[in-house]
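From the shared-data thread, chain only:
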Amino acid sequence: MTVLISRRRERPAAPTANDTSDSAPKTRPAVRALGIDPGLTRTGWALVAVERNGYRLLESGVIAPRSDGGTDDLPGRLNDGYQRLVGVLELTHPTLVAVEDIFTTPKFPKAALKMAHLRGVYCLAVAQAGIPLTSLTATTVKQRITGNGHASKEQVQRMVLGLCDIPNADIPNDLSDAIALAIAGLHQMNLSALTGLAGLTARGRR
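Structure, as tokens:
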């Protein structure tokens, strides 16, 4: 399922994968991060690119893992989630994937284990596609987006809507979280590039 979130009218909306109009861009942005917010019921995903001094949401959607065996058929749901993510990767062709790390609580250990299984098959799909993967905690994402590692979901959502120039809309948390993960992944990539450049410079001065 693909959900495209409308942007402000003064800028044209990003074309869908099936858009064959003359106005559709002929080339993809060079750097595209796919954010994945894993969930056994709903997994939000969003493809974000750097644009001028901001970010552009290219595609977004939700994966709802299902099985003919019902909700208790974990292997079936894992297989369905895996196949659906493979389809998303083939559609979006990201240069980087950012997936949220697992957050566990003592009250729900079984839920955390099931989530770990799902996250594992997602990581497998990304690895098989040969795409760089970065894992980010919720605290790190909040820090990168708002400057506060303990920001609320509402604060994060407001920031990502502004950063991607999306009109204020009542969008699901899993989608706004996926957008935040993609942006944080782009930050991480820039940081890694700068760190690597600094290391090369330091070695060159020896």
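Residues 173-205 form the longest helix (33 residues).
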